Amino acid sequence: MNLALLAAQTTDSGTKMEIGDAALVALVGYSVVFLGIVMLMVILYITGSIFKKRDAKAAAAKAADAKTEAKAAPVAEKSAPVAPGSAGHVKLNGVPEKDAAMIMAIVADKLQTPLNELRFISIKEVE
Question: What is this structure's pTM?
Answer without folding.
Answer: 0.39
